[in-house]
Design goal:
2 domains; four-stranded parallel β-sheet; about 350 residues; 13 helices; five-stranded parallel β-sheet; Rossmann fold; alpha/beta
């Protein structure tokens, strides 16, 4: 079976260990009844407690299984309007949110921000007032400036989901990474997890450090000193500038994209030198545990951050699983926020 799957270029059909979902939670999800999520918005990982994180992941587990069925649709957002505002270009995240909203029955609109009134001089607050007049229920925002999504959330009368703001946070990426790890490893605590590469410019790294730390994991950051945040000592993590040392006996290897668009100086000597020292290949991965999984949030720079053959290795790489879990996590987050909206309107 494994050989056939490899010849077909897909992951073999094996049953990975998974944490058993409590029976009452499984029943709650199947009936579509509310689960506790005491937040109006999803702006970051920082405000979330471990039970909040678990609530999203448990619901996302349900949607991950639903998305593998012939009928992938639910109607929990029926009658609601979702607006996607992406001030930065995105492929995976925007498509994922759009698919998630449509599968839940929402009316989904993608605003073309490159041609928006903001480009003509309108302020972000004026845009918020304009959106309020349209009475959306869910607003998904990606913005190049840290804090911009939080500002919008203060000015609109709907639930806001942060799809990435500057170097600040990318909460749904961290949640989908967590779900991928939990489904592959059977748990999301007491694991040794290495996050490698451009830590300084990565909102994905920041959100993952917070989430994985809240869930009691051991976190290692690996990369050149020029790509480490100046306040790294406050993160409660181990820091390495050597891949062999940093990857020793880890359970999860999470590679990051070199964010050249956020760099304004000589952070690395060259991409070739960077790959030699910090790009993940089979030789470096051999220092991790034999069953360690390989992750990357995408888009990948093959031959810079990761060897292409390793990225496609169905026995080690869960990169395509991350893409799949992204839809499920975003469905779960919007479902829980929509329940809060309905509960507030009914009160």
């Amino acid at each position: 079976m494994r050989q056939f799957a490899q010849e077909q270029g897909r992951r073999p059909s094996i049953t990975l260990p998974r944490r058993a979902m409590p029976a009452y939670k499984a029943a709650t999800l199947q009936k579509g009844l509310p689960m506790s999520f005491p937040h109006r918005h999803l702006l970051g990982i920082e405000p979330l407690s471990p039970p909040d994180i678990t609530a999203i992941l448990d619901r996302a587990d349900f949607y991950a299984d639903l998305n593998r069925q012939a009928d992938k649709h639910n109607d929990v957002l029926a009658g609601m309007t979702q607006i996607n505002m992406f001030f930065e270009n995105s492929t995976r995240t925007q498509a994922s949110f759009e698919i998630a909203g449509k599968r839940l029955g929402a009316d989904v609109m993608n605003m073309a921000m490159q041609a928006s009134s903001i480009k003509k001089g309108e302020t972000l607050i004026d845009t918020a007032l304009t959106l309020n007049a349209m009475h959306p229920d869910l607003l998904v925002v990606r913005h190049p400036q840290s804090g911009a999504v939080d500002l919008l959330a203060q000015k609109v009368n709907c639930a806001v989901l942060n799809a990435g703001d500057g170097r600040h946070e990318h909460p749904t990426q961290a949640l989908l990474d967590a779900l991928t790890i939990r489904r592959a490893k059977g748990r999301l605590h007491r694991l040794s997890i290495a996050i490698c590469g451009d830590i300084a410019h990565s909102r994905v790294a920041r959100s993952n450090i917070m989430l994985l730390g809240k869930m009691e994991n051991r976190i290692r950051l690996i990369g050149p000193p020029t790509l480490m945040p100046s306040q790294i000592g406050e993160f409660g993590v181990e820091v390495f500038d050597d891949m062999a040392e940093g990857l020793k006996d880890v359970d999860v290897v999470m590679m990051l994209r070199l964010q050249k668009e956020r760099m304004d100086g000589g952070f690395i000597p060259s991409e070739r030198e960077y790959y030699h020292r910090y790009g993940l290949d089979a030789e470096k991965l051999a220092h991790a545990k034999p069953d360690a999984i390989v992750m990357h949030p995408g888009p990948m720079n093959r031959g810079v951050e990761i060897d292409g053959t390793l990225a496609d290795d169905i026995n080690r790489s869960v990169i395509q699983d991350q893409v799949e879990m992204g839809v499920a996590v975003r469905m779960a987050a919007m479902d829980l926020l929509a329940q809060n909206i309905r509960n507030a309107r009914a009160a």
